[in-house]
Amino acid sequence: MAFSSRSCFLLLLLVQLMAVSGQAPSILPSNGVQLYLPYQDKIIPDYSMIYASQFYNVDQNNDVNDINDALWCQSANNLTNIGVWYYPNRTEVPLFDGAFDDLLVPSPLFSKRFSGQIALARRGVLFGYEGLYKCIIPDENGVNQTLVVGVYTDTGYNNNDGPDADPTMQFSLLSTSRLATPPVFSLSFNISDGPPTTVSCSTNGTGISTELSRVIVNGSGSVTRVTVTNLAEAGNYQCTVSNTRVTAGTISGVTAVTSTSSLNMSVSDTPTGLTATRLSTGLAHVALSWSTVSGATGYEVYSKFLTLTPVSVGTTASTTINITSGLFRGITYTFYVVSYGSASLPSGNASVMLTISDPVVSDFMAILISSISITLTWSPPTAVVPISYNIVRDCRRVCESSTAGNSETSVSSPHTSTGIPPYSQCTFHLIGVYDIITPLTTDYSAKTFATTPTAPVDEIIFTSVESVSMTVSWDEVPCNGRNGPITGYYLTYTNITSNTSYTVNITGGDNRMYNLTGLIPYTNHSVSIIPYNYNMNGPARQEIQLTAESLPGVISNLRYARDPDAINIVWNPPTIPNGIITVYEIRYRESTSTGPYNITNTTNTYYRIVGLIPNTSYTIGVRAYTSIGPGEWTDREYSTAQIRKQLK
Fold this sequence. Notes:
Radius of gyration: 64 Å
CATH topology of the largest domain: Immunoglobulin-like
Strand content: over 45%
Low-confidence stretches: 1-18
Keywords: Signal
CATH superfamily of the largest domain: Immunoglobulins
InterPro entries: FN3_dom, FN3_sf, Ig-like_dom, Ig-like_dom_sf, Ig-like_fold, RTP_Phos/Ushers
Pfam family, one: fn3
Largest sheet: 5 strands, antiparallel
Oligomer: single chain
Number of domains: 6
Distance between the termini: 198 Å
Mean pLDDT: 90
């Protein structure tokens, strides 16, 4: 006899009218959470399967306790208004506050809260609402827990042939490093067509105790992701899943069976030939290389100083890698490489140690030195050859305190540093150019050779200038013209009038004073000073100095002419005037007189003495004056005439 869907609904309604609504279970779990199915009076496991004829919104089986035959999600936390039921599409099942048998209850399913529990009640037909339902409820510690149940129509349940597991598991490494010993990993697979109530796993046919998790994925697709965790060895892994439909066996000719997912886990081979070399692109840059591992799909590289640091995780398919960050100078590192496949455990590690020492050049030196250049040579640093070299030069003339800096870039050995002043002290710094610049040597010093001075002494100074002597001093040669240590001076003084010269060798660069004697008064003398260093003479500086005046010499060639009452005298200036003749003094008296002379003076070289007595002898004297005083007298005796006579 066939029934229409309307007839089935009326029949169900009639059955419900005959049943009582029932009450909430009075017993809650002492700890944790659980699923309770009153219609069968049993606690069902998480991820169980039930069908429509096993839960209602009334006390369908009229048990003695009048418990409502909904599906109850229960907690040891007895607070009111807790728990939420979710449809397979992750939306909330509607809550209802009225009585279970109220005609206004939502259809086909609704939820109702009580202290410490929430009911999932069915009022209508489940068709179109099948799938994995989820209850989230806090435990006694207030922590939300999730319980899952597969809910089906009676027909859907009866026709279910058991859960369908992915045939191949998916591998995932749990260890933070593939260097972990042993590496811990997990295997996961999806299950559809029913929740996995039980999962049992084995390795190489031997059952293992595993930690597993089950999570609903893909929303309304009713797929459960099962993950088996904390696995640590290679082998053939197999997991078999079952549920209550499988336990029920054959129903209406449909037999439900378990389903199996498996994966064979192997171990990749250990890389060989691992080497670590420094790169010139950076002081802490390292290149690693190793041999190819057959079947490996990738490699992981780690560095270790105090702790392991991944260099490249899961991305290195090449057998070489340049490490250009994360390393530091002055540290010894151990580098590790492991290989792995798409479905294999990582290999044992290959390792190599490398100390990232600072590069040092130990043979930086001068091989050729001139007065204006220094040629330097060096060998590459042992640690790592730089991209290029720079030389920083600080030079100062030995006689100076301040230095002049110079930077020469992209040089190579040997290198000639030019443009250096003679006799200069230079400090050289060899710089390596990497990702940064760094000194490769301690300071190296060298001095250019001395050469001929190119500047004269700075100034000649005359002091204590007397008539026959003077003191000559001079300032040192300017520093930028010495070109070496001044070891002495040649001093030449010349009487310009007589062109008579004398040269004195004054040794010692600090002896810059000399006393000249035996000079001629009131005479120009040239003084020339030539500085020299060793046997190389510099340019001369010459100055002229006039000696001071002295007492003049005697006049010469005194002559006379006479008259009876006068005598005319004429003379020549002193042959050695010893200065400027300012005046001539004339004295005269009768030769027989012992009285004072008559004194007169003139600036001329002639004079007429008048008022004399005829035919009388006179002593006449003439002397010259300079600013210093008079010279010696020149005396003659002349007589006046009785008759006029010619001048001799």
